[in-house]
Automatic annotation (TrEMBL):
Principal location: membrane
Family matches, as InterPro entries: CUB_dom (IPR000859), Frizzled_dom (IPR020067), Frizzled_dom_sf (IPR036790), LDL_receptor-like_sf (IPR036055), LDLR_class-A_CS (IPR023415), LDrepeatLR_classA_rpt (IPR002172), Sperma_CUB_dom_sf (IPR035914)
GO biological process: eye development
Designated name of the protein: Membrane frizzled-related protein
Coiled-coil annotated residue ranges, if any: none
Provenance organism: Seriola dumerili (Greater amberjack)
Pfam families: CUB (PF00431), Fz (PF01392), Ldl_recept_a (PF00057)
Keyword set, alphabetical order: Disulfide bond, Repeat, Signal-anchor, Transmembrane
SMART domains assigned to the protein according to its UniProt record, in alphabetical order: CUB, FRI, LDLa
Disulfide bridge partners, by residue number: C174-C186, C181-C199, C193-C208, C338-C356
Record keyword Disulfide bond present: yes
Amino acid sequence: MRLRAPGCGWGMVAVSAAALLLLAALGLALALILTRESLLHLESVITVFLSVLSGCGGVLTDSEGSFSSPNHPGSYPPNSLCVWVIRVPPPSLVQIHVSYLTVEGPSPCLFDWLEVQEQTEPVCLSCRFCGNVAPPTVNTNSSTVWVTFRSDGSIAGTGFTAQYRAILPGHKSCSREEFMCDSGRCLLPVSVCDGHPNCHDQTDEANCSHKHKECGGQKTGPYGYLSSPNHPKPYPHQQLCIWYLSVEEGHVITLSFTNFSLETQDVCEFDYVEVHDSVDTGAGRVLGRFCGTTFPPDLTSSGPHMTVVFVADEGVADSGFNATYQAVSVLDREQFACSTGECLQPQWLCDGWNDCPDGADEQASSCEFIEVEMCQGLSYNLTSFPNIWLSIADQREAATLLRQYRVLMELACFKPLQRLVCGMFLPQCSPQGGVLQPCRSVCSSAEQQCSQALDLLSFSWPFNCHLLPDSQDPMECSLP
């Protein structure tokens, strides 16, 4: 016979009664406030209610306050759903500052995430956060804001802690080290003067000459070298160096690294070297982005131009890198020999077509046959790892991250979403040994067809399509 602890039965009765009272109160509230606005947010109200019953979330109405993930600073539990509704009196607006963040990542935050949504703008393209870097201050344009924290059933971090406060419309601000643009949008220091405009008015890339000294420039000789400032001593903080390499027509450029030691990161977003197969940073595909202490592979351009970018933030500094480049005649480039004796041009390798009778040209270089179940059956079947975009080491890790893809198959827009996600997680292998990002059109198509469906499931569109290359050339980007 199982013994029941004294008072246990009354405890269960009290909990049940409290739950019934809460349900009754919710029903009464809904009956009293079934306006058009409450109908639109009925599903969200129920979600908040359920999250409160699970021990997290709630409605915050003070002029300022704080909230955090369950168990913080300990690890948050699996399969969590927490929703906070922050409501301040109009015309005041809500400002949110996340002071700490360690949530399973990396971007695009498909598994665990913290999300901020405004009542007046239910769809947000850049308000979902994960990883180990706290986002910049969020200045909203609404007096009611929904903050959602979700976790899946696997890897967990220590979560987040955040503060909010009510501000008047004309008093938006950023933290001291942050940069404000677009009438209230805040950027982290690493995003300022990094060579990529993040503000609509591009003010984050203006007046950057004071930040970048004695690095970068034009190099036009048949060979040469480039290195981070002060190498082999630690490079300075807050650096953006851009080298534009150009050689004679009929030649390509081979870049080789002789020393390489940058700040080690899970995702190369603080200090990194990025190599572009083009005359500048916006004209062609990216051959790779590299950080840490592992030497990048030798990289070869497809034409007579290459652009090399070095970015350093305000944090940890290492000894940097040293690299040499050399012009190589197209006629002297090594060709691939089939078993029949036929010679193939390098651009025919790993292009998805068997040009050798035995298919040996499709097994060359660093190309791998796609084994991840979600991504089989697309118009390309070869990939290359490690994935420099998402810092994924191999296909096994990619398969683990995409293990719940069958849930996405329930969406009517699964096919365009599959093309985009697979293009990001299993990038197409290029003949020159690099990998191709999905084309912007692939991302835009998926966004157009999927964003509304994802919004109904309380997901916001997690990708920024404008960061992808805009081209129809299969050598510039991938159309899976």
